[in-house]
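Pair request: fold both.
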Amino acid sequence: MLKIDFRSRQPLHSIEATRRIEQAAPAKLAPHTLMQRAGLAVARLALATTPHAETIWVACGPGNNGGDGMEAAGHLQRWGKQVVVTWLGSLDKAPPDAASSCQRAMEACVMFADEPPQNYDLCIDALLGIGASNRAPEGRMAAWIALMNSTSAPVLAVDIPTGLHADTGALWHPCVNARHTLSLLTLKPGLFTAHGRDTSGTVWLDALGAGHDAADTPIPRDPPTAWLSGAPKDLKRAHASHKGSFGDVAVVGGAIGMTGAALLAASAALHGGAGRVFVGLLDGGSMSVDTSQPELMFRPVNALDFKGMTVVCGCGGGESVGALLPRIFSTLSPVVIDADALNLVANDVQLQTLLVNRNKRLANTVLTPHPLEAARLLGNSTAQVQHDRLSAAQQLAQRFGCTVVLKGSGTVLAAPDEVPVINPSGNARLATAGTGDVLAGMIGAQLAAGKSTFQAACDAVYQHGLLADKWPEDQPLTAGLLSRSLS
């Protein structure tokens, strides 16, 4: 069993891919083996996370997820716990494996009841798992979920919290809010993006002896649907380096009243390691020097030669940045497109054509939309984007031939011919003005240093989130402090 600590890269598999592993197992294993292994894993995790629990409620659905729960109930009862099972199924209608586990639980003298116990120390959610249908839980199941969420007793979800979509992280109401989730056979993408982080708690994985390294169960697996990003490699700078070794970044943005956005991006590029950072403000030349950061070099935007630079454009750019986008998009320089520049692209077919042509000319481009900006680019709604973030990011990547950073809880990174990546770092402290500008500058610095486009985006996003994860509890996180904490 593995606790997912977000530092190591992990493969993620869809419901369909996980089902194929389940279907292949009977040819390799004795009947009922996977469910027995699943139940034992759940029981062990329950004992490890809540060792002092005396009364344990196991809420079982009618399918195989319920069978996993009943198998766990039998072990816990034999280990001296007071276990109460509520089951929404019946022996005559249950799948064969679940029916077998029910019989085993009964033989272990587990108590079956129509209603949950009045007091319990732990609840095991074995209602639906990845077998959830495309409709909200209702009736007794909905009432049980509401009860789980209303008490202080911890919840351990089997495979995935009931009500959460395993592929997308979208949720139905009600949805279980778990303290721990034990993902079985594979890790599912929905645990780590959209609502997954809020509902899943601490995520664990048990491959049930059917992992890629299993000696006794060589069950074939599909390639990953996505990857959970791991920590970037710590690359030390060569001693014989100079500022030219780490590239130039030009930040274009900061229209009247929005100068701060460009300065935040520039500060992040500077503290993120760029060799030189140029700033082309669009507010008519309000600044020629930033005395708090004299390393930043201010230039009239029309005097900037983008050749050989990485360009970060759009941060606080307003409508003014639109006049510069054709010139920027026509260069072969790496470009990070953020904020107002994204909105202008969404409304301008010519700019979209120029963006697509960049890919044909092998020019590196990164788009960094939040969900509303992504919806504008796709011509749909924020709700549609959030309903399937992986698909939305991949659609954008294919449409524009770019690396896409779809921001939000569980930021999704996609690019043509790349398996998508979900970033696990970060928290709600980043939900404050200017942190997106900081991320754009960080990506610019990574690109200027010579990293591949997709890797530069993945590494910057992970580092951005990690800073928030390590932020002192008693110190407010602001974008300015965030950018300076890079160095």
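--- second member of the pair ---
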Amino acid sequence: MRTFDFAPLHRATVGFDQIADLMDRVLSNDAGQSSYPPYNIEKTGEDGYRISVAVAGFADDELSVEVKENALHVSARKADETDAKTYLHRGIATRAFDRRFHLADHVRVTNASHQNGMLHIDLVREVPEALKPRRIEIQSQKAIDAEVVEA
């Protein structure tokens, strides 16, 4: 496995330490991260996203979706089954899981729905007006001279 040294990034930039920390976290978590449950991340619009998690076998009250400190936590715990069943083949995994997704700044969860064994979580990126690009009108020298004369 490759290792990356982010020290030059810290020396040459200011304010980008979150990116280096994110890269460090992603590279260190890849080896131990489970692929269960399977999920999709899709772009639904210019600023819209949807995370779909396959949660077959789980009821609504056994699922939990929580946002905390720019992280989305999706977890499930199967309720204890009181009736003992004998399975000849058990291919539907209903084991407990805790999946975390790191959210970028200004990304907000708008909706979560559970249907047909899929948990859909809708997200939207809402950039504040102060951070959006704005066009600055360029005044001609004549307009500036006219304002000075009027004053």
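Observation on the second member. The two ends are 69 Å apart (CA to CA).
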